[in-house]
Design brief:
- The protein is an alpha/beta fold.
- It has 3 domains: about 5-105, Gyrase A, domain 2 (2-Layer Sandwich); about 135-210 and about 375-430, tRNA modification GTPase MnmE domain 2 (Four Helix Bundle (Hemerythrin (Met), subunit A), Up-down Bundle); about 215-365, Rossmann fold.
- Helices cover about 45% and strands about 15% of the residues.
- The protein has 16 helices and 12 strands.
- A 6-stranded mixed sheet has the order 3-4-5-2-1-6.
- A hairpin with a 5-residue loop joins strand 3 (about 45-50) and strand 4 (about 55-65).
- The longest helix has 26 residues, at about 150-175.
- The radius of gyration is 30 Å and the shape is flat.
- The model is unreliable at about 180-185 (pLDDT under 50).
Length: about 450
């Protein structure tokens, strides 16, 4: 069934220096002729007078013509590079809207057509969605790698290796009576070995941080007893009065969260209620329970209490806070010596060191340079593929070529879902709905 021809403003909202209107579909060429009076040479920018259906002048603009299927959407595609004023863009869009067969694009429809026409796969489309939403350097780098096909190339390699293993199994099952075909146990052993190597590689990918950690930001929780300087610290980090600072114990009764970016890494900093066992009323106890839950879920913990009372946490920075209060006190000085760093948010002492320590800890939780993280949907598919490839060497399955071949087929189906070759209809609307109009 032939699709509608769609159009939309694909650049930023006017006013702007240039407004790019994109037209994609079978009637894109006729639409360009209708406005410009001609179809220019393919892939060459040409200056043209644009007019509406009555001959009224619209704009003097650059026009480009891209015949399909070698285009961004896999269809005939036209672009109008207009003067970016509101009135100009509105007039051109109105002229396009009355051309038979044309309609305004829905959110993400251009990218969806690129996917459906095989110009990009599902993993690349998800990367593009993340790239459009990226606000920090780490988000940009991660999303760009996904949109550029980093994950897709890895999946393609795994699929090629699976096909090689499946070919060996099928050859044995269908042509075992031929003299030049491996037979019996040696084939099964080779399959088990190949499946194990591939499962180990998938397991290494699953051990990487999830892409959602990068997109949503690492959780950095500030915790400790009452009056330890937690609220002063988060205010200093946020550079605004986010939390109430008071000498009264129990002032902070809930988790107060603020998004921050340190050295291009998205983080969510949380100030929590002071942790104490006695003297808290019912409302404060609710805050303490929430603080404990936040500590357990934290990616990085900033502990402002006694060093030996710090919760067991893989990434815990023990901080001797409020240094401006206890300088000169021998007992406090001795306790501070056991901490990871000394800090005074009020005077700024140690804040640069804390900044560097948080960033260093965060980098251990992010993919290394050149690595790609997987989204939850992709991780689930990869985990399923790994499970199908994992076979006990001494199990009955290990010597049954029919069962091994079926496991290989199911593993391949799971990998297909990462790039969108199978079983993805249920999430396409949700994915492409994240895009803006014109993408």
């Amino acid at each position: 069934m032939e699709r509608d021809t769609i159009f939309a403003l694909s650049s930023g909202m006017p006013p702007a220096a240039i407004g790019v209107v994109r037209i994609s579909g079978p009637a894109a060429g006729e639409a360009l002729r209708s406005l410009a009076g001609r179809l220019p040479e393919a892939r060459r920018a040409v200056l043209a007078e644009l007019c509406d259906g009555t001959g009224g002048a619209l704009d003097r603009a650059l026009i480009l013509w891209f015949p399909g299927p070698a285009t961004a959407t896999g269809e005939d595609l036209a672009e109008l590079h207009l003067h970016g004023g509101r009135a100009v863009v509105a007039a051109v869009e109105a002229a396009l809207a009355v051309i038979p067969g044309l309609r305004r694009a829905e959110a993400g429809e251009f990218t969806r057509r690129a996917f459906l026409n095989g110009r990009i796969d599902l993993a690349e489309a998800e990367g593009l969605a993340d790239l459009l939403a990226a606000e920090t350097e780490s988000q940009r780098v991660q999303a760009l790698g996904m949109a550029s096909g980093h994950v897709s190339r890895a999946v393609e390699d795994w699929q090629d290796r699976l096909l090689g293993l499946m070919a060996g199994a099928e050859a044995e099952l269908n042509f075992a009576d031929e003299d030049d075909v491996e037979v019996g146990e040696s084939v099964a052993q080779r399959l088990i070995l190949g499946m194990g190597e591939l499962a180990s590689e998938l397991d290494n990918w699953l051990a990487r941080p999830a892409a959602e950690v990068i997109a949503e930001g690492l959780s950095v929780v500030i915790a400790g007893p009452p009056n330890a300087g937690k609220s002063t610290l988060i205010n200093s980090l946020a550079r605004r009065e986010l939390a109430i600072v008071s000498p009264v114990a129990g002032t902070t009764r809930d988790v107060i969260e603020t998004p921050l970016a340190l050295d291009g890494i998205a983080m969510r900093f949380s100030d929590t209620a002071g942790l104490r066992a006695d003297g808290a009323d019912d409302i404060e106890m609710i805050g303490i329970d929430r603080a404990k839950a936040a500590v357990e879920a934290a990616d990085i913990l900033l502990w402002l209490g006694a060093p030996d009372a710090a919760p067991s946490h893989a990434l815990c920075l023990r901080i001797a806070a409020q240094a401006d209060h206890w300088r000169g006190d021998p007992d406090a000085e001795a306790a501070a010596a056991s901490c990871d760093l000394i800090l005074s948010a009020a005077t700024g002492e140690g804040m640069d060191t804390l900044h560097a320590a948080i960033v260093a800890a965060a980098r251990t939780l992010l993919p290394r340079e050149g690595e790609a993280a997987l989204r939850q949907r992709q991780r689930a598919a990869l985990a399923e593929a790994k499970d199908w490839l994992t076979v006990e060497a001494r199990s009955r399955e290990a010597s049954d070529l029919i069962l091994l071949a079926e496991r290989l087929r199911l593993a391949g189906g799971a990998l297909d879902r990462i790039t969108g070759r199978a079983g993805v209809e249920d999430m396409l609307d949700t994915l492409f709905g994240r895009f803006c109009i014109g993408k």
